[in-house]
Amino acid sequence: MKKYLVISGSGPDRVGLVDEISAYLSSHKLNIEDSRMAVLGGEFALILLVSGEEKDINWLKKHFAELASRTGLKLSSRDTIAPTQRALKQIIPYQMTVSGMDHPGIVREFTAILHKYTINIESMETKLSPAPLSGTTIFKLECKLAIPAEVKIGKLKAELSRTAEQDNLDLDFEPL
């Protein structure tokens, strides 16, 4: 029977970490089905959805410290369900992008609105980069959203747009 495990962790970045992790897992008949990995500052961070036969997942859980030791990462794991077993209300998938001059609180302002409308953030990425000519720090937030079918999209978009306008930010809000 197929089982699922979520592995998360972080530690000092170095070349070859992804290869080492994927080689270890695949050599034990485990599959990386979904993942997010990034270098943040000098740290490497990851979250993986791993699947395999129950005996192989159990083997990994017993030998988990070996993977952590080999990679130098602080790792944790948690049993989970198959992605197809996840019970969701009827949703409308959307993508939201917010960008502009960086200042504290941007993520909070927009996630507070999403929370108010009971919208699930399926994935989110934020980053800072210098503007091409001025070098001013530009913030960018990208996220995929699961909006409950009963949410009035026009009302939601108006509230998001007001917030973006108040903070002098650009907002793109489109169905996927």
Please tell me about this protein's structure.
The protein is α+β, with helices and mostly antiparallel strands and 176 residues long. It has helices at residues 17-27, 54-62, 64-71, 106-116, 153-166; strands spanning 2-12, 31-40, 43-53, 74-80, 91-101, 120-130, 137-148, 170-175. A hairpin with a 2-residue loop joins strand 2 (31-40) and strand 3 (43-53). Helix 4 packs antiparallel against helix 5 (153-166). It is flat, with a radius of gyration of 20 Å.
Main traits of this protein?
alpha+beta, Alpha-Beta Plaits, 8 strands, 30% helix, 5 helices, four-stranded antiparallel beta sheet
Spell out the blueprint of helices and strands.
Blueprint (H helix, E strand, L loop, with lengths): L1 E11 L4 H11 L3 E10 L2 E11 H9 L1 H8 L2 E7 L10 E11 L4 H11 L3 E11 L6 E12 L4 H14 L3 E6 L1
Antiparallel strand pairs: 1-3, 1-4, 2-3, 5-7, 5-8, 6-7
Helix pairs in contact: 4-5
Indicate the structural class: alpha+beta
Strand fraction: 35-45%
Q: How many domains, as an integer?
A: 2
Q: What is the CATH architecture descriptor of the largest domain?
A: 2-Layer Sandwich
Main sheet summary: 4 strands, antiparallel
Number of helices: 5
- Roughly what is the average pLDDT, rounded to an integer? 96
Q: Considering the protein shown, what is the CATH homologous superfamily of the largest domain?
A: ACT domain
Q: Helicity range of the residues? A: 25-40%
**Name of the level-1 CATH class of the largest domain:** Alpha Beta
